[in-house]
Amino acid sequence: MSGLDRAERSAHRLGALVAIAAATTAPPGMVRVVRERGPAGGRPELVFTPLRLLLIGAGWFGAAAAGWRPLPVRPSQPSRWMLLAAGLGLYLAGMGLAVAGRLALGSSYRPSSTLGATLAPNHRLVTRGPFAIVRHPMYLGLALAALGALALYRTWSTMLFVLQVPVLVVRAHREEELLARTFGGAWEQYAARVPAWLPRGAHPSGVVLPETADAGGASVRPGEPRRQAVA
Predict the structure, then answer these.
(1) Is 229 a residue whose pLDDT tops 70?
(2) Is 105 a member of any domain?
(3) CA distance linking residue 94 with residue 60, whole number of Å
(4) Structural domain containing residue 158
(5) Would residue 230 count as lying in a domain?
(6) Residue 46 has what pLDDT?
(7) Contact 116/44 with Cβ under 8 angstroms?
(8) Which residues contact 67 (CB under 8 A, 6 or more apart)?
(9) Which terminus of the chain is less hemmed in, N or C, by CB atoms within 10 Å?
(10) Any idea what the CATH number is for the domain that residue 118 is in?
(11) Is residue 43 part of a domain?
């Protein structure tokens, strides 16, 4: 086995471990979105029931397993080194950003779908951490990770992950509609200062907003903890 083969095998194992660790942050939100719902947009009830979530998850993982076959490409050795370096870098950066966004949301995290989105009860905006850089750090992270995985693994499943990136854009748009309807001017000010996808140097301590309101109508002043239920 060559040094390149060993490096690729180690990177593949590292990628798998990172994916497993990141996946452990999702189940609590899946449980909460079934049990506790605040304001909603679209038809989230069509997706977020225990049986449907189980069927969707089984179908998705089944398709990923079935498609874990190498693509019909044979890059040269120099190209493999470049794909390894670029792919691993994008993958780790993307997964790190996605997990950072998930942790910033805490117990307010609620998954969404193209059919609908829901917020947590007494939901508050998050403008700190990765949400001070872009409005959708989790989705941006997943998109970067998908591109990195394609370069790193070069399987049909990773190609499928990349093709699903436009779905994240649709979900983000649906979530923003819900947030705009729920928070009004507070959301508009945040959206005006922080870009959706491409960072432009937002301050890491968070966006300073005037007094706003949470989803229950209570006032929220800057400096109070803010929570958000979107990616």
Answers:
(1) no
(2) yes
(3) 20
(4) 3-67+77-220
(5) no
(6) 60
(7) yes
(8) 155, 156, 157, 159, 160
(9) N
(10) 1.20.120.1630
(11) yes
Contact in structure between 44 and 37 (CB atoms under 8 Å): yes
pLDDT above 60 for 226: no
Query: What is residue 40's three-state secondary structure?
Result: strand
pLDDT tens readout for residues 146-159: 999 999 999 999 99
Output phi, psi for 164, to 5 deg.
-85, -5
* Cβ contact 144:59 at 8 Å: no
pLDDT band at 8 (very low <50, low <70, confident <90, very high): very high
Is 182 among the domain residues?
yes
Distance (Å) of CA 215 to CA 5, 78, 108, 123:
52, 53, 12, 5
Residue 123 has pLDDT above 70, yes or no: yes
- Per-residue tokens: 195: 């870009």
Q: DSSP assignment of 96-146, as one string?
A: HHHHHHHHHHGGG-----SSEEEPPTT-----SGGGGT-S-HHHHHHHHHH
- Let me know: does 133 contact 199? Beta carbons within 8 Å: yes
